[in-house]
Design a protein that fits this description.
The structure is a homotetramer. Chain A has about 325 residues and is α+β, with helices and mostly antiparallel strands. In chain A, about 20% of the residues lie in helices and about 20% in strands. Chain A starts with 6 loop residues before the first helix and ends with a strand. Chains in contact: A-B, A-C, A-D, B-C, B-D, C-D. At the C-D interface, helix 2, strand 1, strand 2, strand 3 and strand 4 of C face helix 2, strand 1, strand 2, strand 3 and strand 4 of D.
Chain lengths: ~325, ~325, ~325, ~325
């Protein structure tokens, strides 16, 4: 039994959850292979009220401890100069957005090229395939037709009877199983698993102070074999899956869920989602499973994309 | 009967399709009000094979006649320097994207603040509410929870028995009705109507030459009352709805569908979609209606968003 | 005698140093009018060793308390993909920079359109002339041919016998006069005056902590009439002229030097310069006057420009 | 004698003008080593009228055949919302600029890391030292203290008695010598040589048509040994030195002046300068030598910088 505390144990875990070669040597979809059209059809049957709920945060233009390189939102033409095009009768406004979407502030999807372990990404591809001109392999384009399936929300604060997960006490695999049971469902093949750590409730009580190091609750590495065994297709969090900072650092393994999830399993990750509205709706509906869909921007050679995933109840 | 040829006629048309005040003086959703949760529930029943299809073009980084201000895609950290963060074992790549998404190249949604007529946008709000710091009214945030409903594809080249719509012969309201019939369906309240002009087939045969003025097929203004009468919620096109250039210019009314659609009706527009894959799937499935969903990035004060809409059959 | 403590006194000061109309109603150069070609010729005679010294900070890409919206520096093509252009034998690297250069981090020049007082900028022009599409009046283009003249460095820490100016004790007009004398020179018409507050020595001893509010030393408002009387052409600082935060806030006058300097006098400001190297060279040379030159980027409608001013001894 | 027509000849030329090792194995300044402080002192004596003249084009925000990826200039706060900061009395406007400055539109300096030949840049350094995260060697920072010296303008159209250099007839070394003589001067060690091809006169008569391939006049490769022999420090052009397209293409040597100048000689290049004003002033003054200065932005790891060089007569 691994304690997930040493480099050697992590290497062993990495190998044990590796899907390299599982779907062919040229596969770039990883665990999206679990997410079949049958999953989408089954998920559609979960739509009952038709209520759609965004699971994204606002485009993060405001600087702050969790957003050191804010996104750009600039008007190109505003309502004070709408005729700037010079075409009679043409009155418009338009704007520009810019974002380095990885990090702790933007709701985004990580492509499988986002993280390397020992110089390799998913399916054994070399890191150097991600060049200064973009990712030639494992880009986000494998998800260009959207990700559609059953979303299941595991509400860990609800399980613990707290408002939020204490950043020093990561979520364990046993808790994932317990959350399933308490929410009367079972995570299965192809599910899009959303694990709430109550980030926003935590932030409301502990607003990030300028001088304070960021803390975000996350998963214990023992969740990794659980996610692997359940054949989860995509993993989402209101934080970033890996605790920040790690309460139990492992030598050379700073972000185990990212490293094993993206690089070994080929499991796309959704970071910095927003679950406050969804949680409330789930409680109202007394169910934590729903139709879930997101579509990355079609960024050829991209390492991911900003997203606005939608849950439909 | 209007011929839609003069400024006076367009002003009359504008008034006749205006929804200002229809859903309250503070409404910012416009015809999204037609798109109820019931529409989403009904649309979900259209999911049969579970096949999902992107209706977006790739992020437009390549300059060209239709893309004079290309989007930016820059690596921030590539695979040649994955340890740049300096945290032992942290090996990542990440990138930056930037885009002024309006125009002819990017698949995007127009917010209701994108176009003004005589200094006013939807619901009579002054253009000056769109400031250099962003849109205080009628921003894209009204669609933050996603747009979910029945998509219907009106395939005009198929109706005409051609590969693409001739840019000099705009699509008429009669053709919209004829397309419905030939595709065995009827557009109704809340539908997300996608009108294909075969832009990509046209481009394949007439690749835009550097020196050539851009031409894009579009709708005749007489489609506007048709869309209004049918209570369409959202209108999408593989081009930009208004012909470029107009084969029958109207004084001071350069873009009638944008002007009446956005400013009078409050109907969000989806520009520069990609229908080649969807059309093929519809032909295979012998149906042109499907579950359709898109979610803009949550750009507070944004005039729209790049999007990747998904049709699910 | 004004104490420069109340709104009324500031309004009076503003009027007394106003150059509105002085060089014509259409003038956009302000105190650059003092900087004649004769000044440049005279300044050239100060070149003796030929040593040139940058007075700029590095392009500020690193986030921090003084740099909440860092500049962008992205490679477009790096040395890992030099043949990306696809032209045989063409091997290049190239990059992209982006910056909102105002603020506390970037060495930049403020154009006269950067600051308004009661809705007016220099020469009585309305703020609304700076539109979402750029500044139609008082842009940086008035300095497109470069700023060339005599630079004089007033080294206030040296005068005070300290390493840096205490942010709570602003530099006074009397100190400017005393610094002149102690450095054996007299500021005169057309001079480019650089006032060192020892920002970098202060930072070395008090590195900005993440949680700490930024403090920057600056000038007391009584320096304003001094600068006006001496007919200074351009004012530079290693900080931002106005203390941050003000140790003696004045109602509605948060940044008196910017407000009186830019809007009343029409005096361009150079913010966030770097004087460590220049100070050392001046001490070595036992003189604090030198040939000084800077040239803004030719940003039509720009509110300023990032700069790298050069002192030549 | 080389004809500069074959790959072998170019390789031979490259070796013959190579300065690799000349100023030490770690040198990153290349021919800037010729530009001593004595040069600056001597150049200062050329200042007689004090007239300063910009040699830069405007920041290139407008798309066009020569500017496929236009620079960005966005307002962040305009005069329609000057109080956006929310600080009482603080009324400002500010803007953002962004640019990938290499190419045919922006006045910029090429750092020595901009071009590689057979995977090597100046002084034999490997191209891979320019990573996705920036240039670790041969960046523009070697010129951070400005480039100051004697500028000499060789006006080739004037020599030829034409308005502009015909793009199909590159400037030869003999013409450089003839221009010197006709302008009564001799290029010597450390000079900053500016070679005018009359680009703007050419453009005025042949405005670039959208469909037309760009043509720019440039230098014949036989100018390279001439520049090497004269120990030129920096080379500037109103075009890009190498003809576009080459009227006599050499296998695998698409841009000989860039390849030999930057990579072999270590000579910084100034591209896309603007000489119309300078030429007129030189004619008026009957001299073509002057004090010349430019300072790149201090972009750590940058491959160059946008610039606004100034000539002072």
């Amino acid at each position: 039994m691994l304690s997930y505390a040493t480099k050697a144990e992590m290497q062993s875990l990495f190998r044990s959850v590796s899907n390299w070669g599982r779907w062919g040597d040229n596969d770039e979809r990883g665990t999206l292979n679990y997410l079949t059209t049958e999953c989408a059809v089954a998920a559609a049957k979960l739509i009952s009220t038709g209520e759609s709920i965004s699971c994204a945060r606002n485009f993060p233009v405001d600087p702050g401890p969790e957003n050191p390189t804010p996104a750009l939102h600039h008007m190109v033409i505003g309502g004070d100069d709408p005729c700037a095009h010079g075409i009679p009768g043409m009155e418009v406004s338009l704007d520009f957005i810019g974002i380095a979407y990885h990090g702790l502030a933007s709701s985004h999807i990580d492509a499988l090229c986002h993280v390397f372990v020992d110089g390799k990404m998913y399916n054994g591809i070399d890191a150097t395939e991600v060049r200064s001109t973009g990712a030639r392999r494992n880009s986000i384009m494998c998800a260009k037709d959207g990700i559609v399936g059953r979303g299941v929300l595991l509400d860990i604060p609800r399980l613990r009877g707290t408002e939020f997960v204490d950043p020093t006490k990561p979520v364990t695999a046993d808790e994932l199983s317990a959350a399933e049971k308490s929410q009367d469902m079972r995570v299965g093949e192809g599910d899009i698993v959303l694990i709430s750590v109550g980030r926003d409730a935590h932030r409301a009580q502990h607003p990030p102070k300028p001088g304070e190091a960021t803390t975000l609750a996350g998963l214990h590495p023992d969740c990794i074999p659980w996610l692997h065994a359940r054949e989860v297709s995509v993993l989402g969090s209101d934080a970033v899956h890996d605790p920040v900072p790690s309460p139990a650092p492992i030598e050379n393994w700073p972000i185990p869920v990212h490293m094993c999830g993206l690089a070994a399993m080929g499991m796309h990750l959704l970071d910095n989602l927003y679950f406050v509205d969804l949680e409330a709706a789930c409680v109202r509906a007394k169910r934590w499973k729903f139709f879930f869909t997101l579509s990355p921007l079609r960024i050829a050679r991209g390492t991911g994309s900003p997203i606005n995933p939608i849950a439909i109840l």
